[in-house]
Amino acid sequence: MGEKARIPYGTWGSSYFPAWQTSALAEVNIGQFAGESMNRIMGLRGVPVGELEYLVIGSTVPWHWKFWTAPMIASCMGHRIPGYHVEQACATGLQATLLAAGEIENGSSDVVGVLTFDRTSDSPVGVFPERREYQRTVPIADVWDNFGFDPATGQAMLATAGNAARKHNIERLEVDEITFHRYEQYYEARSCGFLDRVLVPLDILNVQGKPLGTIDEDKSVRPITMEGLRSMRELDNCVTSGTQTHAADGMATLLVAHKDRVQDLSPRPEVDIQIVAKVEVRADHALMPEAPSLAVQKLLTRLDMKMDDIAVVKNHNPFAVNDAIFSKMLNHDWTEMNKTGSSLVFGHPQGPTLTRVIIEGLEEAVDLGGGNVLVFGCAAGDVGIAALFSVA
Fold this sequence. Notes:
By secondary structure, the chain is of the alpha+beta class. Strands 1, 2, 3, 4, 5 and 10 form a six-stranded mixed β-sheet that branches. Strands 11-14-13-12 form a four-stranded mixed β-sheet, sandwiched between helices.
């Protein structure tokens, strides 16, 4: 995607993702929290926020002061810089990173901060003028109603998982096995200390700056058993409450910089992280879990690569069905992906989800001594996105 942009190793971090309405994060302005938390994380990483020249933020749920977008968030960081806001449902975190790289490539800035966040707790209700109806206004719930209805297909996101499972003849047993394995991977990453390098405990302050608590765990993640998974009622084909992710709150941040600035920013400047390429596709109607696999196929074809060329495979998997389909379409062993956790387990705040996935994937590749990192996921509207990162 270009020769100039790099992600300086270690200039990143994520909050834990407490599940919807399980922490004091449900009570605060998420934009303010995100800006203050980015300042905290960059301080821990040894990067003064004064080094940033521009800010790309991403979120999907409306929040108070959203009109002011990145400039307002930057002020919460304590650094008055310009920037803008991006939104693409679940793909937001990856898109924000790619757009930040574009700012570097076109010469606009040398150091760009990526800050993604969302608070699904108590999502606001938007009221819209509707002149075509007898009603003066029509209220719609921003998040929950949208999850349940795609205006292009009339179907809920959950239904797309059932549709895709039927199309690809996915078995319920495999989906349960994938889910159980994903939990094992998450707990292993947590017990060995891997997640401590990625996730940062963060204080929650109200608008007056008074402490409300600390986020120091992916709250509501609990051990599961195969017996428990097998006993759950199907909500649609191969989909149960246990084999899909849960709504959450949180933030994640990273830097993208000109390659000449990596020496100043990274604790390990010898690590070279580049964004190689990305693609997006749109699957047929109401087949969202199939779209990421189609995107990966297109990406590999474009780069003349195979799955054997990939060292780390990480995805946003709101349904375990996604991974079963990916394994089938790409002929890839699903036990060999998401080795340090996935959003199926730790939750889905939307905006920061893929940002955290990127960070975990890059950390994993550095542990391996380098290699190609494949990051992909689905987004509303039957969209699939995939990107390849190179770590050397």
